[in-house]
Design a protein that fits this description.
Order of helices and strands: EHEHEEHEHHEEHEEHHEHHHHHHHH
Number of helices: 16
Shape: globular
Number of strands: 10
Strand content: 5-15%
CATH class of the largest domain: Alpha Beta
Largest sheet: 6 strands, mixed
Radius of gyration: 25 Å
Strand order of the largest sheet: 2-1-3-5-7-10
CATH superfamily of the largest domain: NADH:ubiquinone oxidoreductase-like, 20kDa subunit
Mean pLDDT: 91
Distance between the termini: 36 Å
CATH topology of the largest domain: Rossmann fold
Bound molecules: iron/sulfur cluster
């Protein structure tokens, strides 16, 4: 069965859609699975086409860009009505990106600068009094998408790497393995003797569909539910497993098994970058309110929530950067990026170049440090950080042993440096962006 998809653009540079188009032949394996309902970047769709679809008739909608006009706001709301699952596609949609820096000024100041004062202006225009009334209104500030509509999943990156895009699309159209057999379970062909449950190990084979060739329990490793739910549980073993979970204070090893189970059994995205707003593991990590289902997933989540040994794993760019091994967490000078040629192996921060890797979510594979450029933070804040810029400042300040005059001389645009992609969602910006 094909998946109905729509791609919508709010105010943006179109780079994310360009990135999608740049997949070229890479799109071929997934295109037959997609029924494209709206994609004006490549075909002559009209907005009325989108408005004409029945509410909820589009399975997945991708929105690029942030909200800078009233039409953006309206378009985002129409997408929310038409799409079952809405994805914030790219850093503009997730965090406001570079355009969010405009929130340092009022709308009037921006219009005046652009249409009256900019060096390239030959015929100044007063865009407050002389604007074409047919034009959509500019919003007071850059509004982040999820302040106006509920977003189900986020795919950051400026633009997202093609592997992230393909990973996200593959996640959305994922198919069951051909050999999956929901009418049986893993226990039915398990040769573990004694059963791992009798050995005190949390094995989820009893609630998992059969068909797997690997059969981890045969090698002494618990089944973590890769094949998803079966319709035919081994009731006796499933009851024993639940009993174990209910009385458990999970060790780190057990917490790892349970979190793998929650991800694989429920088909949560495992690759870097795409993340679901409703991801239960994130909710546990944030101590956010959550309703636990009455099934095995709910029992597993409850066990995780009460385990002091469970840590939500979410890497930063440093965790995927080869220079990390050489990071000494000291910075005795500050350099601007054009000063000198950076060493290709030493951590940028140790060399004095201000790299946002420690506070930036992993997912790109450390593409910039690999090309000898500092990370500027485009994948947005690491999970749990609400203010990427403030965290960057405190991280770097804790490493730095430099004179304050050097800070003043070398950091000429602190907002542009530390908040380049996330000003619109930062705590500091909450006042102007709280519209929902
Ligand atoms: S996230 Fe980056 S590439 Fe995508 S639209 Fe925004 S500025 Fe352009
Ligand atoms: S619970 Fe695990 S170890 Fe026990 S029989 Fe089932 S698959 Fe095998
Ligand atoms: S700070 Fe930058 S250079 Fe250093 S390890 Fe992190 S990403 Fe790599
Ligand atoms: S290294 Fe940093 S700036 Fe470069 S792509 Fe990755 S997250 Fe973006």
């Amino acid at each position: 069965m094909t998946v109905n998809v729509a791609f919508y653009q709010c105010s943006s540079c179109w780079g994310c859609h360009q990135s999608l188009l740049n997949l070229h032949l890479g799109l071929l394996p997934v295109l037959p699975e997609l029924n494209i309902k709206y994609w004006p970047a490549v075909l002559d769709y009209k907005f009325s086409d989108l408005e004409g679809y029945e509410d909820g008739s589009i399975d997945v909608g991708f929105i690029e860009g942030m909200l800078r006009t009233e039409h953006d706001v309206h378009g985002a709301k129409v997408m929310r009505k038409k799409c079952k699952l809405l994805i914030a596609y790219g850093t503009c949609a997730c965090y406001g990106s570079v355009k969010g820096l405009a929130n340092q000024w009022s709308r009037e100041e921006l219009l005046q600068r652009k249409f009256q004062e900019a060096e390239s202006v030959e015929e100044p225009l007063n865009m407050v009094t002389d604007r074409d009334p047919e034009l959509t209104e500019i919003t007071e500030s850059v509004v982040n998408l999820d302040k106006v509509v509920d977003i189900d999943a986020y795919l950051p990156g400026c633009p997202p790497k093609k592997e992230n895009i393909l990973g996200a699309v593959a996640f959305l159209i994922k198919k069951s393995p051909e050999n999956m057999n929901k009418s049986s379970n893993v226990c039915a062909t398990c040769k573990a003797d004694p059963c791992l449950l009798e050995q005190g190990k949390l094995c989820f084979g009893n609630v998992t569909a059969a068909g797997c060739d690997l059969m981890c329990p045969n090698s002494g490793d618990p089944c973590v539910g890769c094949f998803g739910p079966t319709n035919n549980q081994d009731e006796g073993k499933a009851a024993k497993l639940r009993q174990m979970l209910e009385g458990l204070t999970a060790s780190q090893e057990q917490a790892n098994v349970i979190s793998s189970f929650v991800i694989l059994y429920n088909g949560l995205p495992v690759q870097g970058s795409l993340y679901l707003a409703a991801d239960p593991l994130r909710k546990i990590a944030l101590d956010a309110p959550m309703e636990y289902s009455d099934d095995i997933s709910g029992a597993a989540l409850k066990a995780l929530a009460k385990s002091p040994n469970y840590t939500f794993m979410n890497g930063n760019v440093c965790s995927t950067c080869d220079r990390n091994a050489n990071m000494t967490k000291t910075m005795t000078k500050i350099k601007r990026v054009h000063e000198g040629l950076p060493d290709t192996e030493e951590c940028f921060l140790n060399q004095g170049y201000l790299c946002m890797g420690p506070v930036t979510q992993a997912g790109c594979g450390g593409i910039c440090p690999t090309s000898n450029s500092v990370c500027s933070g485009c994948y947005g804040p690491v999970f749990g950080i609400t203010d990427q810029g403030a965290r960057a400042i405190s991280t770097m300040a804790s490493m730095a042993d430099v004179d304050i005059s050097e800070v003043e001389d070398k950091i000429l645009d602190p907002v542009g440096l530390f908040y380049r992609y996330s000003l619109a969602v930062a705590e500091i910006n909450k006042k102007v962006n709280d519209t929902k």
